[in-house]
Amino acid sequence: MAxxxxxxxxxxxxxxxxxxxxxxxxxRVVDMVTKEPLESxxxxxxxxxxxxxxxxxxxxVLKNVMDxxxxxxxxxxxxxQKVTAGAAKDNIIIELRKGQVDLKEIIIxxxxxxxxxxxxxxxxxxxxxxxxxxxDLLRLVPGLFIAQHQGGGKAEQIFLRGFDADHGxxxxxxxxxxxVNMVSxxxxxxxxxxxxxxxxxxxxxxxxxxxxxxxxxDFCTAGYVAYNTMNVLDKNMVKIEGGQFNTGRxxxxxxxxxxxxxxxxQSAYIAAEGLYSDGGPFQLPExxxxxxxxxxxxxxxDANNKxxxxxxxxxxxxxxxxxxxxxxxxxxxxTSRFGAIDSSQGGYTSRTNAIAKLTTTLGHNFTWENxxxxxxxxxxxxxxxxxxxxxPLNGDEFGQHEERDMYGYKTTxxxxxxxxxxxxxxxxxxGIRYDNTYPTWLSHTLHANDILNFIQLGTVKECNSNxxxxxxxxxxxxxxxxxxxxxxxxxxxxxNAPKSDSAxxxxxxxxxxxxxxxxxxxxNVQYTVxxxxxxxxxxxxxxxxxxxxxxxxNQGYQVLPPAYGADFGINxxxxxxxxxxxxxxxxxxxxxxxxxxxxGDESVQPSGRTVRKGIDFSARYQVNDWLFANLNIDLAVPxxxxxxxxxxxxxxxxxxxxxxxxxxxxxxxxxxxxxYRYLRNRAANSxxxxxxxxxxxxxxxxxxxxxxxxxxxxxQNLLNVAWDESQFDYISRLKYEKSPVDEVSYTPGAPFFAxxxxxxxx
Length: 762
What we know:
Elements: H1 2-16, E1 22-31, E2 42-45, E3 51-53, E4 59-66, E5 70-74, E6 81-84, E7 92-96, H2 114-128, H3 134-139, E8 145-147, E9 157-160, E10 163-164, E11 171-175, E12 178-179, E13 181-182, E14 191-192, E15 202-209, E16 223-229, E17 237-243, E18 247-255, H4 259-263, E19 267-277, E20 288-302, E21 305-319, E22 324-325, H5 326-330, E23 346-361, E24 366-383, E25 398-419, E26 422-446, E27 450-475, E28 478-495, E29 513-530, E30 533-543, H6 548-553, E31 562-575, E32 578-589, E33 593-594, E34 605-606, E35 610-622, E36 627-640, E37 656-665, E38 670-679, E39 682-683, E40 691-692, E41 695-705, E42 709-716, E43 724-732, E44 741-748, E45 753-761
Parallel strand pairs: 1-7, 11-16
Antiparallel strand pairs: 1-4, 2-3, 2-5, 5-6, 8-9, 9-10, 11-12, 13-14, 15-16, 17-18, 17-45, 18-19, 19-20, 20-21, 21-23, 22-44, 23-24, 24-25, 25-26, 26-27, 27-28, 28-29, 29-30, 30-31, 31-32, 32-35, 33-34, 35-36, 36-37, 37-38, 38-41, 39-40, 41-42, 42-45, 43-44
């Protein structure tokens, strides 16, 4: 019936139209220098305001265009081009030149969905804000905050939409399709260490909040962040940075093929990063060392097949001062808030990745992508949060270790159908991921190297098979997206701990293997009122998986607790250079995952049902040709459902955060900006009898960029405020204390921290 209606409407339009020659324009939009396809470029018929956007291959189709019409091609960060429809040939190649960011290029259309909105925001922010590290890339996501609390080499703690997501329990993170989250990790479920990503290699990223995306599975409850590295370098680069606290960094990025290779669809480059830092004013220097190597090769196998191969490796070591109880300084256990109680803390990690991706263009508007990936991973961490609480004689120092191989494959096939004035994009995907961790342990240690006993010791094998289907129909001012995802998990944990292990008895007589499946439906609807207003509703079900050790210990209880969410949002352009996105949202979790005091506890503790609701607000404003402003405000009300009033606070969950900045970019090469991030006080425990203090921190960056070089400086914590980067509620006992104390422990944030940089381009 729908096809009949569309056919009749199309005939009516044809007969009602004046007798003027009409054209169907098909083409491809690419970067003028790199020849790379440009996704989400907007194609607009200036006469009728009909629009379409390019797909991930840079391709587009614009129907029913009059020969005399002018067609514009625009994309944030590129100079707009115009072509005459009658002069355009079939499969025209349109090359866009990089230019200044201009918010006038943003036009709200029916094709403006979550992906294009997030890419719009990310393109503006990535183009304007100088990025100093992989951590800064996470901070670019509106409403996402991070905290480092165990030395520079450990994965950051993540906060988003009222979640203390620990190191990634409720935020799905990926790079070039490679999962970053580690399942059943020695330190925490979903552990996401992004330090293998060299920030200068990032071409762009997209993000989404909530559980509404069929291609995102495990951990996508609060949302996801997906990074993509550059396919082609437009220039070679060597960068040297140096600053306070004996900090030094060098980065180089080099093309391996000449310009002629680009015309053949080939590219290859390598990048390397070396970093050393004492980590700030800590009395115990971190001696943080990191080495990253990255390589990417792309070649056309034939007219329809493109192969991408990516190799990368990370190696990092550091020492850590760890968390300090609030009383430690007041009572003289340390002489500075940057002191340390246990000097043995620190860690080592390495990760080597390989990705092979084949992109195939089939006939009849089909695109088929196949990706295989592999990671080899090592992790070792020594921590001490409670000091002499559990063991007054030897102390509570503990070690966490794992060695892991991760294998995966995923396939996606997409087809675009043009049904009259409607566009139907159909996507089907499937994948498998297998993690083999051998061994993984939690041990009671002394002076880092002496293992007193194993608290946990075993082998984890975990497999996730998945499949999904997704349909997006764009019809006039409406966009309908619906999909469903199926996931099956098999968990295996073989306990190898000695009988004296306090946790060994938990697994006696237990089946070491458990399986569980879940189906996650999604529905998104949006209506574009006009080029200035768009309304949307998102609804969906997601999930986060439990740690395999807990699954086996509990014999399958609460393996894949679901999350149900809904968003009602608006995209709004009240002025040509002002773009606003805001949303009211709601999220319900059947089972919250929280973490205990790692010493002697299971990795993950189920803590009952929770609900979160809130408001997200993001605005981007271009004051004039050289001055830009942004503002993000995020409010959340997180509560535990199964607890009584006054005992239903979610520890460390953010309730109010904000970031904002002013950024400038002059034609003479001078650019930079000043920005702040604000986190309000929040509950440190379920009764709010303890408070995790908020902070307001300001950063500054100024650069002078020319064709062949760039010089600049950055200052973190410009106003030199005293702030606590991370805080936890711990029951701890310091040496010689007669009894333990329940209070907040903290890791101090960096004070005024200035760095200089010099880059050469060639």
